[in-house]
């Protein structure tokens, strides 16, 4: 569910021609091994551990997020939150978010717990 004022695709948006899956691949290609490990860590408790353990790329993690309904084309905020947390703020543009928008939305839309399960 998009927030008011959040548009997935505008006529002036160059990314508009790129499909959601392609955007996920672009994000994946810009993340390193440590970023993937950080994503997996942040998803503990939200995605089954066995699935996370088998994930070797960000694309694998994204597939699990899609399967768990934590990520969708209509509502990519959870991924934006994850990218923000792992300090990959430059990649937010691929989801049509800015750092400021994520910061503004976090108080009401945050899904990543500040406390990690043991």
TrEMBL record:
Keyword 4Fe-4S: no
Listed InterPro entries: DEATH-like_dom_sf, DED_dom
UniProt keyword annotations, A-Z: Apoptosis
GO terms, biological process: apoptotic process; regulation of apoptotic process
Span of domain DED: 19-97
Listed name of the protein: CASP10 isoform 5
Provenance organism: Pan troglodytes (Chimpanzee)
